[in-house]
Amino acid sequence: MWSAKCLTDDNNNDDDESLCYDENRSFSFAQHCRPLLVANCSDYAVAHSNKRLQPARHVNEVSFLPHIQGAMRRLRLTQLLRLQSYAWPHLNQGAGHGAVIVSAPRSGRTLSYVLPLCQVVSNTLTEHRSRARWCLEGPIALVLVTDLVRVQQVSALCAAMLRKSRNEEWLTLVLTVPSSYTPEFFQRLLNGVGCMVATPAQFLWVCGNSLKLPHLRFVAYDDADLMQAEQLKQAHQQLLLLTNPERPQLVISSQSYKPQLLSKLREFNSQLMVLFGDVLEAAIYGGTRLQISLQQRKAKCQEVLRVLRERPPHSHRTVVNCQSDSDIRELVETLVSHGYNCLPYYQTADLKVRDHVHRWMQDSRGELLLCTDHCPELDVRHAHTLLHYSLSDSWSLFKLRHLALADNLNNQLAATDLKQQTGQQQSEQDRLLSLVLLDESNNNQLPRLVDFLQMHQEVDKLVVQLARRIRMRIERAKSNESALCQLMLSFGECVDTQCEQRHQLLMHDRLLPPQMPARGDVKLQLIRVYTPTHYCVRLLEHLPPGGSWQALSRNGALELQLQLLQSQECVRVWPPLVNQICVYRNSSGYERVRILRVDPIAQLNLSRSDLSVSVQALDVDTRQFTTTSGKLFICPEQLQDEPPLAIDVRIVGLVPYTGERDWHESDGKQCESWLNSTPKPSFLQARILMVLSHTVFVHDLAVTSYAPNLQLHVRSLTICQQLLRKQLAKKCKKAEAKLLQFLERDPCQALDLPEMSELPRQKPNMKTATLLTGRAGIFVKMALQLGKQNRLRLLQKQREVEEQQQLDDVQTTKQAEQQQQSEDSIEALCNCLMKCTMMQLQQDNEENDLLKKDCIENMPDASRNNMTKLEQKLEARPGATNKSAFSTDSIIDKIQLQLPSNVVRPEVIYYQTACTLELQIALPEDMLPYEVQLHNVCCIVFWTLTPAVYPTMPIYQFIVNTHCHFENLRHRMQGRTVYVSVLKALAVPYPLDFSFYKFMKPHYEKLHRMEKERRRRIKSFESFLLCNGYIPSRVLKRANSSDDLSSDDQADDPAVSGRERVERARDDCEFIYS
Fold this sequence. Notes:
By secondary structure, the protein is of the alpha/beta class.
């Protein structure tokens, strides 16, 4: 049962019949993104507060309303996560209780505040229902999220937890902000709203339209670190003004901790709690000094000794984390030789060592604890110094190491007076220390560690550049090169710290295809509308500055050539490589795609069809999607060189009217309806601003149509003016300037290291500077060497690109000249047609000769004997003087065993089982009508019917006489193959001889299996005889027997390669006993 402590609803909300979900707000429980159970959900949490916290140990200890508990049961929330055990009891205490939750995504942090929020909304609605007059105005709860996708997720989850009475049609449980001004939205606000979910930009837009919040009780900032700082600050100031003097509860969730979050929480609530599911973030909050030391492997022990001299183990409890037991042994030898007492905890430690560790926790007595990440039984919580002799195998294990500092972290909420708190600053010697030692063989986690440090403190530029190079090396090893970030292409910046897409231009982004115009105007053909500023088009014509319209050449038969691949045997791509152009098989045919990202491949020698691959379409549209390697095939070389037919067009300088960074899906559909409703004939026209290899940036997009009365081309629609007029978008010069700055940035600047003269000579402003001074020279030399190698590689790549471009220009010129000559010469075309006709006639004559020879060679023996007897009779006649005139060859030449011109033999693959004869008939087209019959229990007749759509299509037919008895026939068609199964009269192998029928091909794999089964039965029979004593010793075959069970001579004999051999059963007389 759920409710050991269950609340009740005074308005009969316990009855399910009196409650209902809001219309069009039904929640799909099957698609709910539940929290992870392993990756991000830690069993440990660090919670600090200015009051005593009592975490719940089970779900039954938390009080929720019955309908909320029912929704939890449908979500299968039967396990209480560690974050929720602290958050639910604290937030359920009501007004004045706020919290800052710092944890990774999908760790249960959203449910930590959604359920208390819905509890507050339900209780407030119950309170208003009990009053004589309904006076609710505005929302009861407000949730600010980062983007529109998150708006849909949180609003659906809140709608699943809330209920209303059936007679409360005016009440809106969950309300989202539309993309434009609508009277219905503000009418719902006046009638009362349970929870409003919006982005900070949307909330500021609503506040600009005289928003009032008299009944606001709960506010949540979801992913506050991903929001724009200026927008969040303005939204927070608006809430302070609108909620004075009664403050609502405030919950702030974030992936990283910042002191500004705690100051915002203090302005709303007095009973505060800081909850960490990320132990590394908790260590930074608690005053831990995190440092990086780049050392050679031989010098790491000396660095450990230096730190121990500065922080003696007698006064600072020290834990040293290693990657393996071998690292522990290596470090113990050095420390013992310098007089330090060590307590190594190997993975094979026994109970005696475990008891020693417990005594060390009570009193360290100057001993150093050395352990690895594979010792979860150690529960060290009050260490002062944490030395990472080597990094962990994963980032999560590295963060979990800092749990050893949890009990010594500084509680910033314990001091009641802020001045008293700021005055009690710890000295550098007394602060907690976490030192990371990196060498040349253990630095793969450096990029992620540098990203974390950059959010909390300044990092040396050399360390940042080295981390960037390590990240590029790791990406190259993965054979991945992600696509450009969509936010960078729209706004010129990306605020998502967890974004995995590329934020820098590379050299191939600047290389334009031969037919890509760089300036002027272009005519476009619309393919697809993604957003109001992002379109997929095809380039039709180009108008250079001061010139005339010129048609852009493209391969119009490219799509037809791709569809013709269905009749060929395409080879799968293995291994898939980044930037490789291949063919993707979709539901309607084939299309070209370019590989963007490939999952790691463990073994290249084993071909896989389930490997996840991210690709981008090139011709149908420019969508990006994820597929498997089994649907990717090798693209022919002549199609790989063809430029893409589809390209992206983006309008610069437009942002959503409400100020958020994502467009509503309805806005894109609205733009598409505008473009499709323009009078025909018309075309799209745009002026080029900047060009990349895959994207054209323009200022505006216009629809131009021809007015026959005026005999002029008139612009009937401009997208920018229409969006501004309908208040769907607004101009933003700041976004335009950032985008142009991003596009004009040199791609080589982000890759080269600075010269030695450009480096600052003063001491770097970083807390790790003291650890780098001893070996700064080695690091500088390494950085300079990497910079030189990088510049040489870029110069070489640039020269290769220029040479290849020159060769392409020469080849393009030659092809154009040849094409012009061929087009201008009509005589050459006539000669070509005549030659093709002559070659076809010669080929028909050769086929007729081969057919005659095949008829003679494949004629049965009985027919040959009859012909021989006929020849002898003709020779015996009187007056037969010219013998050669009546020879066998002359008679055979007169036999015309030819097929009609519209009849073709299909390819048939056959094999037999114990009970059936199986035929596989390959046809050129799928869904082709056909007939198949069993005639006179031994003849199989097959023929296709000519469809009415293609009256000239040949008929595929054959007649096979098996000379064996069959019962019935079954058939089915799958794709282009017809499967025929003929049931035998006797369940024995039939002696089939199809060597006369050249179109009949045996299925060697199936025949091999049948032969193996026959040998297995013979071997089983011999074993049965031996076991029952019928054979006193092993069985030997006759010495003079030429019929060998495993004879390879017959298999190699070409005379019998075309027929299936069925061996007869052996009698007992064929065996001799010894």
